[in-house]
Amino acid sequence: MSPPASETQKQKIRIKDETRTGYTYEEYKQTADWLLSKTEHRPTVAIVCGSGLGGLGELLKDQVVFHYSDIPNFPRSTVPGHAGRLIFGNLNGKPCVCMQGRFHFYEGYPLWKVTFPIRVFRLIGVETVIVTNAAGGLNQDYKVGDMMVIKDHINMPGFAGHNPLAGPNEESFGPRFPPMSDAYDKDFRKLTLAIGRELGFSEKMREGVYCSLGGPNFETIAECRFLNSLGADAVGMSTVPEVIVARHCGLKVLGISLITNKAVMDYSSETTANHEEVLQAGKDSARYMEKLVTVLMKRIEMNNNVC
Ligand code: HPA
């Protein structure tokens, strides 16, 4: 019996995707133009919400909301804790666009799909991307609820050739060999740490190195020890692909990890990491992250300098 037409169609799309190495410039442009035609908001800041941190999107005023499934070319979010909505609006008076839910390699998406929204943001006029995530604390000093301003990253899948920029370079976005030694804007990092102190969050504020893995399984004890010995302070399954693509196309980047669990580093430990714990820690601490980002918005100038 032949499969129903819709299944055949889905399979054709799958085969087409497998043979592609990226979107065309026209597809990014089509999505950007579609969004600009549907809203009068003209955001200069984009916020990517990590697991359990989607509440940030709810804080936007004058919201115009799009479900990912309604936006041309947009992938779908499949993970609990990731709503799958793009929200335009004003946060503390600044026009911004917020991704309530992101895409991950472990969902089966190639990295050029995971990072699709970033280039669309570039085309609609965004200058700064604030990426947030939930992460496991490798640094033994870190506690659940700490907020780590990302100073640098280790792109572990990149070591095995998984890079969102692999394939023909799209020159209209950026160079073939972009630097990454300045990926996380120094002034934004300083400002974020200062705001954290002003808000009375000094005890929670950290600055450190984020390591991304492909997931979806949480790490073994040996892997956690290995990553920590490499200099990683926190580990997660996201963020780095988006940051690489954002830097490639000239966007400024600020990254903040919410430490939702302590990585298991000890063979005598009885605890194991799980997604429910990550979401719960997100819920418990989201208000701190929301306050931090909200105040930050006020201090990012229209031309995205800090003040
Ligand atoms: N490992 C990987 N990803 C994560 C973790 C973790 O411990 N916590 C939240 N996201």
List keywords for this structure.
five-stranded mixed β-barrel; alpha/beta; binds hypoxanthine; single chain; 10 helices; 35% helix; Rossmann fold; 307 residues
Task: Please tell me the total number of domains.
Answer: 1
CATH topology: Rossmann fold
Beta-strand segment tally: 9
Sheet with the most strands: spatial strand order: 5-8-7-6-9
Molecular shape: globular
The total of helices stands at: 10
Instruction: State the name of the first-level CATH class.
Output: Alpha Beta
Cα end-to-end separation = 66 Å
| Mean of pLDDT | 92
Series of secondary-structure elements, N-terminal to C-terminal: HHEHEEEHHEEHHEHEHEH
Q: What fraction of residues sit in β-strands?
A: 15-25%
Radius of gyration: 19 Å
Characterization of the model:
The protein contains 10 helices and 9 strands. Helix 8 links the parallel strand 7 (205-212) and strand 8 (234-236). Helix 7 (186-198) packs across helix 10 (275-299). With 307 residues, it is α/β, with parallel strands linked by helices. The radius of gyration is 19 Å and the shape is globular. The chain has one domain: Nucleoside phosphorylase domain (Rossmann fold, 3-Layer(aba) Sandwich). It has a 5-stranded mixed beta barrel with strand order 5-8-7-6-9, surrounded by 4 helices. Residues 134-136, 218-219, 235-237, 260-261, 263, 273, 278 line the site of hypoxanthine.
